[in-house]
Structure prediction request, 754 residues.
Amino acid sequence: MKKLLLSLLCTFAFYSSTAQNSLIGKITEKSTDQPLEQVSIYFPDLQKGGVTNENGEFKISNLPLGTYKVVASYIGFQSFSQNIAIQKGENNLNINLAPSAIEMDEVIVSTPFHKLQRDNVMKVEYAKIAALKSTGAPTLVEGIGKIPGVDVVSTGVGIGKPVIRGLTSNRVLVYTQGIRLENQQFGAEHGLGVNEAGIESVEVIKGPASLLYGSDAMGGVLYLNPERFASANSTEGDVNLSYNTNTRGISSNAGIRSSGNNLRFLARLAADNHIDYIGGDGRRVTNSRFNEKDLKVGVGYLNTVFNTELRYNYNQSNLGIPESIGEQTTSRTPELPYQEINNHILSSKTKIFFENSSLDVTLGYVGNYRKEFEEHHHHEGEADHGDEEEEHEDAALDMKLNTFSYNALYQFPIWEKFETAIGVQGIYQSNKNYGEEALIPDATTQDFGVLGTTHYHLNDNNDFQLGIRFDHRSIAGNSYGTMGEEGYIPEVNRSFNSFNGAFGYKNNISEAFTGRFNIATGFRAPNLAELTSYGGHAGANRFEIGNADLKNEQNIQLDLALEFKNEHLEFYINGFHNSVKNYIFISPDGTFINDRSVYRYLQDDATLYGGEIGFHLHPHPYDWLHLESSYQTVFGELDNGDSLPLIPANKLTNTFRVEFLSNDTWWTKSNAYITLNNIFKQGRVSENETISPAYSLLDAGLSGELTLMNKSINVNFSVNNILDKQYIDHLSRLKTDGIFNMGRFFTLGATIHL
Prediction:
């Protein structure tokens, strides 16, 4: 065994030191044949790339043998994508980019085979985090909520989680650093737990993705892409600052990236701090304050045989839980009740290259340590010595969730036009309670899944993709408390199995029209709260009882998409129909315990359907002018005809935007926008909800890029809810208390490139 390992190490060292495979070429504008400077050219599979010089020339060295996709992209031009066979020595590729006022295509990494969106069989939404933040969104999840088909269920400003086409919590899986984020996401007051600093972009799969990601992805996936390492032999740094007038929120982060030929490194430190926000009625919402600290570091190594990277993210948050309008204060320290959350995210990604295939191995660890402070508690046996002696405060809830995950995916060609991937995935998860109360029991959850998927490129107009997967989940939980008393949790020992599949077809109907058809199944095993709850829920003023006999949720969703795109117009229409068998929901049973209405977890079949429609126009010859509009709608109901809870209201968004490029030496580009958001009345409500009236919000902003003292600086200014509208979002958890969402606020931000 030692001899084998030594041989492998020697082989890796030999290839690393002797291989000098490279790609050189020139990128020019198609119509004029003039060289293009600062064009990004990138190998997504290799995570390696560079930019062109003033002559449009580039060189990428130290490439492995084999066939890989290369992508060239530049603002104002159509993205280029092509598979190229890297052979020994120097390889040549010259590229002509065609001008296009439509935003450039991006490589989608949340689906297999890493294709540009226009080549993907499955429709995936993509957005740059910087673009979302420039709209004034105070948090990452609020920014993501601006993507069509995505909404946010929130508790004030600091606590929010994504809703994809009416599904949320354990039905939507979040990925960060290439691993699944586990943070007790079933809880209504449990937010995303990720800071936007060091996140480059987000991809949203709006539909069942259990084929790729297993249980909990039946409603979709939110895939957060971390910032890339710097190009080879370069060092970059930046400082970001922003201020929110409503919450007096100060957000700052600074990062550095440095790469040699093989070794790469990056680090970023961030901090956010906000006081109670002011609602549309002019009053501050007591205890909606929050603060956050975040550290991200990464190190990578790549050569012609493999590349590997190790990333770590530490996030510490203190989140006030607002309950009413009380004392008007500008304190930045949360008062009771509040949560103290520490997240540790460690991921390792390694890709080994063979001549025409590759093996991806991703390992992950997520430590979610959550404490909730509700009131002062004495240690057992201690006496109350009155107000003169300081009480000892313990956490009412103290939960530690540790999740280890693995994912191995082998990609290989079967025949010339088939790309195929097979793999295994799994998690081992343990939850332990250390507080005076328990929401869920001490438990262990184990997942194992095996999958296979293939993409068939028939010709330039037709692509097919299909796959199948098997999953097994086992849950073992200990009992807690005394049977029959409030807070009692029974022992649980359950196993769940599921087969799932997906089929997709993309047809380039013409040069401008593209059609997509996808049908996929997904599943979700019931979570511990649904299986074991027995006790009062103070925030909802009800007594919740779980159901140990709950079955898998299983769904099948049909998606249809039609897109039109030319140089000056983009139009799309997406429709979906989602049938869910054994949908889990909570409902009152008409009885009371301790003067609280009893709610039980039940199951029934459910249906969700709807879609999105939108267009983007920038008429010739006024390419600087952009008119954008989108409309989204979701309907959700149980088999008995009752409406599902937390179904977002229909929304119409219209944006007028202008962009200008300048030859000025200090002010190079600028843009401005004004947006009208029309949220319609939500009258289709569940038994536990009230009707939400319609309202409209007006937003505006401007941004630009300038050069000062040889430093590139991006600045942005925005104002949201310009008319200071008093409104309550249908998905706000503060709606039952009549607490308004945020009133008017201004945001000023700057990014300084060092």
